[in-house]
Amino acid sequence: MTDPSRPNEQLTNHHAEQGWAGQDRDAAEIVAKRDYLLANNGIAELEILEPTEIERAVKLFHRDGFVVVRDALDQEQVEFLRNGVVEVADEIVAADTGQTGNRGSHRYSFGGSSVTRSMLHRPEWQMLIDVPTVTTIVTAIFGSSDYMVRSGSGDFCLPGATEYQPLHADMRDYLDAESTPFSSFHDPRGHLSTRDLPCPYVAVNFLPADQTPLNGPTRQIPGSQNSRQPYPTLQEEPEWMRLSTVCPVPAGAVQIRDVRAWHGGTPNLSDELRAIPNMEFYAPWFREPLTPGISYHDRQQLSEHAQRLTRFHVMDSSEELPSGYEVKPLPQRPAQVRSSAT
Length: 342
Prior knowledge:
This protein is of the alpha+beta class. It is built from eleven helices and nine strands. The protein has a single domain, classed as Sandwich (Jelly Rolls), CATH 2.60.120.620. Helices cover 26% and strands 13% of the residues. The N and C termini lie far apart (46 Å).
């Protein structure tokens, strides 16, 4: 682990200048917040597992809605991924002519910025489809290897992101047929929601750099994946939730999340880009509409298992996969509504 107060040179270069433009990184209130986070940020006694602790990983995942495992990627893979996310982040920021982000100020979705809504066209994300440690744990979580890729995405935030992102989940409960046409379901009895089901899909975030108290670690609320309570607003959120961040965690680790669990972005008061590229996997029983995200040629280069996982994502061999990035505000995640179930 690196010293959180010292920047990672591979992730700083021009990012500090970009992110802190128009702000004084040494203003009294920023320095005070930086000192406070250094002293208090992070889940107390965060358990970081070894790649061999499969049963423990599954137990923590089902209990807390997430689990952290070290050394999923080796150093060569970490550097390859790090270089790739920096290249992509620079392209996305360059496309953001208004400098507004698409997940709030200074915050961007990788997949949400791609014209295919996925990053499967990039070799760095293709590497993440079948990582042995992750494949073993995800298979154990679902109880089957017959799961499937949903997308390759993740997000990043620039230094100078001084505000918190509201807590949310990546999967919405049913609202109405127009705003939630798929993913969720309507139970006319009012008894069941997606939160009563086994996990429909997981997101696996890969760390190309250390996640520290200062560089915008994800805050994760343990045990919230089955909660029907509304998300607290930023004004209502208690301080322990703000500080419930997944840090410190070393580069090469993964955070495997139940997408229904509450989480959100936190301030990046460092001088470095914080990126958490991901791979998302559907449970064997769950599906949503999909858009092609990988070319026929690229899919042929994948492992046999990865080819199976991406079988519904491949572009026809006679067609060219679209590419490029566009930055526009993504749909707001609605507040979680109370269920009528008792």
